[in-house]
Amino acid sequence: MTPPPILLRAPAERRGVPARWVAVACLALPAFAAPAREPALREDVSAALTRLQSRQEATAADLARFYGERGFEPAWFANGRPTAQAGEAVALLRTAVSHGLEPADYDAEGLAQRLRDAYRETIAATDTALTSGLFAFLRNLGRGRIVPPRLRFEPARRMDEPDLARVVAEATTAGRLPGLAARLAPASAQYERLRGALARYRVLASEPVAALPAVRKLAPGQDYAGIAALHRLLVALGDLAPGTGVPQRYEGEIVAAVRRFQERHGLDADGVIGKASLAALNAPLRGRVRQIELALERLRWLPPLTADKLIVVNVPEFRLRAMRRDGETFSTALRMNVIVGRALDTQTPMLIEELRRIEFRPYWNIPPSIARKEVVPRLRREPEYLAREAMEFVPTRGGRPTTEPSEAMLEAVLRGEARIRQRPGPRNALGAIKFVFPNNANIYLHHTPGTALFARGRRDFSHGCIRVEAPVELARFVLEEETGWDEARILAAMREDASPRTLRVRTPIPVLVFYTTAVAEEDGRMFFLPDLYGHDAALDAALRQRP
Predict the structure, then answer these.
(1) Do 65 and 172 lie in a common domain?
(2) Model confidence over 235-280: pLDDT tens digits?
């Protein structure tokens, strides 16, 4: 038997369908030799598939392979009626909402209706549309809906493209279709905790919540007209135990609950309700739902992380977590505050690389952009700045370093013929230890002699690199498998009288510099952070602008 003629027409007769789709379909020609139970229906499926492919390029090749390998027979109908697996496929599409995706993107309800109303002339179109929706959902679930580089995130390791034609065919044959979502979704405890929080916050957002009365500044011990409304809100959000009584004024346990709320929302946890705290308390909960949905979307961008250790920096949270593998996922072994790049002009980029070495008593090689924009102009105003900050010029083509701030050397720096570096010591911007994970943005983790900034609530003060609050603890985590590198030896290597030293890490550790404003902690608390760099707003707009 010959293949359906729709696939063998000349390009001008194929209704504008790109030749690559036809080529992919023709790879399955050996399967066409199988006898078709309904030749006319088989040709209907082929024609419907061609029309669908012209509108859905992302799934075109998968669709061609899927139907080609089954001889272009319907996948979800038998004897003119929907199969039980057709119902399972629609049920699977409906689960998209629990992942922060939109079932309407895959026409879940429309397909359910079409399955109920299908007749001979519409079976082929319904069948191919259901397969297309299923493929689109599974691809979005496993890889996200937006290409990450569009939003300033390009993972070092690409994810393999799932073979959806094979995956769906095998699941259908084995009766495992309902389990496909769990198989292709990110295998992450954070992802599952966020899904649970998403369901909870959707319920909260569906219930009416009265806005709290305006107050300029509410300190503990003061009267407040909105105390009952504040009590109800804090109980609903889990910051206040349900059995706690409503106080006469703002004091006692309700103040402690406000502190917990402030901590979870990236605010100074002082228990004082000022402008920022009141705005966070009155923020519509549908906005929190959207933050969780955007967090789930970003997690879908990540490639599988298979190492035994992982270091994660969440930029808007100003936090670092050192994690160990615990079965199929990770548990947190160490947390600390960090300082990240300034929101205005030196934002820390999102990236994934491997920590490969530690430098004790490092030199700070000042990036050319900082040298040109900041250091050279300052040296022209204050030549003594070079000696005061223990800096020196280093010719790029060899030659001895010099500490003479001559105009010739400054011009050499501007031309790229020399660089400026800061020697190890108490004024060195990198402190006594640097954690290196090579990357194109020249970002690294490092110690800092200026520790006062770690006490601030908002900590975007750097030129882009990440300053860590507890470098010794982080070094212990990184080097715990290296013989002889206990805390005493780490501290000795960081002393002022120690010589610079580079130590290679035996097993490189992935470092994920990430950006999410919704974090589900292991103890069940949800943290919502301000959109420091505006990345949430950009992602939300990009998702809404998709066709």
Answers:
(1) yes
(2) 999 999 999 999 999 999 999 999 999 999 999 999 999 999 999 9
